[in-house]
């Protein structure tokens, strides 16, 4: 008689059995919600009652935020600069040569803007979220670790034809926004004081971006191809070495890439330490001077300058408030509909 295997003993078979516990024998107490009118209707009414006032509060706060958008890339006053940049300036920009053109746009503030005022620049049709663009950087280099051989992700903006490395390297740094702005209060005849302190994220300022032990180490590297000045000369306002290099906040703000092709980045804040601007911007006539250097026409982009205040929810954005109001209204409407249906069904006599 052929034997194909050893017969297992009863002890071995018992060891395969799960232990007689409530968890393994599926004897744990279970709870399953039963959706009845008495449980569902209060939830609908509660969500509606809570969401509706919250949405109204968010919408009112958003509407109280003052904002002015000046799209200067298509403005008639900047036509000469735009044409000059489009004619010869594009090749000059790619070779790090500024066109030194500026234009002015007048605007009025009908009411007083109290409190903090923020100034942004905005771009459209600029895809900072492209995968290769986002990766085109050397985080070790930006942390102050300068090496002659940079990260291969920076290609083709890692070194020039002679093999000298760029600092900072990569497409993100190379395409840094270069337009500059000045605002003048016309009736006062003086410039609006702007500061760039704390315009970048605190984590970026204190952790992600650091300079090497000495700024002299940058002499062994080239400035990015599209830049008109080296990384040690970015701060043209205070001309302080502590604001130059990789810790320059204009540079840090640009290096935090945007998620969408239409975006805005913080440029400056109103310096309220000055007595005439302690309470914000007064109403009246202003003039915006734009130092026009950054080309966008080649990819169909647009440039804008934004002035805005803020509230406890941040900047001007009506979406969140509208979303809360819509959800609250729907819950109340469907709650009343389901309540009417429930009352009719409950009072309807049963069929024999």
Q: Beta-strand percentage?
A: 15-25%
Major beta-sheet overview: 5 strands, antiparallel
Please work out how many helical segments DSSP would assign: 9
Shape, per Cα inertia axes: extended
Helix content: 25-40%
Biggest sheet strand order reads: 1-11-4-8-7
Order of helices and strands: HHEHEEEHHHEEEHHEEEEH
Gyration radius, rounded: 31 Å
Could you list the spans in which at least 5 consecutive residues all have pLDDT below 50? none
How far apart are the termini? Answer: 72 Å
Assign the structural class, choosing from mainly alpha, mainly beta, alpha/beta, alpha+beta, or little secondary structure.
alpha+beta
Average pLDDT taken over every residue: 89
Number of strands: 11
Offer a quick outline of the entry.
This protein is of the alpha+beta class. The chain is built from 9 helices and 11 strands. The relative contact order is 0.23.
